[in-house]
Structures are given as structure tokens and as C-alpha cells.
Amino acid sequence: MSEPVVAAKSPFEVEVEAGKSYAWCACGHSKSQPYCDGSHKGTGMVPKVFKAEKSETLWLCGCKQTRNGPHCDGSHNDL
Ligand code: FES
Question: How far is the CA of 63 from the centre of ligand 1 (A)?
């Protein structure tokens, strides 16, 4: 299994809709950040799928170093 690459050194602000499922890119290779576009194929990594509990604004991790995926935990500040 390879390590995730840094897609961005800051989180992505996104609007999510209650009840809808999203696939957050965990590998960093997606061209559709912060979501998975299938580019993880062959990396041994998979996206983290989550369902929005309510409609809200979220900050999804862009550096892929978070320990609280898909959410930003401030790890980009250590890069
Ligand atoms: S493209 Fe990164 S997890 Fe799918």
C-alpha cells in the first residue's frame, strides 16, 4: 500500500446535502478533489464513503494526512 499524496495544502469547503453519500478521495490522486474519481486504482487505497447527516458546509481534508478523514484535522499545518 502506498502513501497518499498531498492534493492541496488546505481543506476544501463543500456543501453537502442531508442523506446524500459522498466518496472523499483518500489517495490524493483524484482530479475532482476532494472527491474520488477512480484514480486510486492500483494504489491499494480506497475512498472514504460517508453519508451527510444534515445539509451543511464541511471542510474536507485536501492534504490527505488527516487522522479524522474525511474531515480536516489541521494536519496540513505541519506540512
Ligand atoms: S481517487 Fe483518491 S480515493 Fe479514489
Answer: 13
- Domain of 52? 1-79
Q: Looking at the predicted structure, is the pLDDT value of residue 67 above 90?
A: yes
> How many domains would you assign to the chain?
1
Q: For residue range 12-46, what is the model confidence (pLDDT) as tens digits? A: 999 999 999 999 999 999 999 999 999 999 999 99
On whether the CB atoms of residues 40 and 25 are closer than 8 A, the answer is yes
Going from the Cα of 42 to the center of ligand 1, the distance in angstroms, rounded, reads: 10
Determine if the pTM surpasses 0.85. Answer: yes
Q: Is 47 close to ligand 1, i.e. is its CB under 6 Å away? A: yes
